[in-house]
TrEMBL record:
PANTHER family assigned: BLR5716 PROTEIN, DUF427 DOMAIN PROTEIN (AFU_ORTHOLOGUE AFUA_3G02220)
InterPro entries: DUF427, DUF427_sf
DUF427 domain location: 2-87
UniProt superkingdom: Bacteria
Gene3D superfamilies: Domain of unknown function (DUF427) (2.170.150.40)
Protein name, per record: DUF427 domain-containing protein
């Protein structure tokens, strides 16, 4: 299995929703987009909008990250950011800003 650093950021946002675990959203500029490919998966969140998903390009992991390409107006702060599933990548280490 190939290993790649998918993101390295000092500018992650933390999104806290109700009783859910906090989610780190990383600016697309800090993500190795060449290591990811958009998958066919999509979901809808009534609070944020429609999410697009990304898989590892090497095929080792499906839908490791998601992004709201066109979030609802009140969530525009996460536009241009990706979030990673902590259980689908080896590690997430961030210095985030609230």
């Amino acid at each position: 299995m190939d290993e790649a650093i998918l993101a390295d950021s000092r500018d992650a946002l933390i999104l806290k929703e109700a009783s859910l675990n906090p989610v780190y959203y990383i600016p697309r500029a800090d993500v190795a987009m060449g290591e990811l490919s958009m998958s066919d998966t999509s979901t809808h969140c009534p609070y944020k909008g429609d999410a697009s998903y990304f898989s590892a390009r090497n095929g080792d992991a499906k839908d490791v990250a998601w992004s709201y390409e066109n979030p609802f107006d009140h969530m525009l702060i996460i536009q241009g950011y990706l979030a990673f599933y902590p259980d689908r990548v080896d590690a997430i280490e961030t210095t985030a800003r609230d």
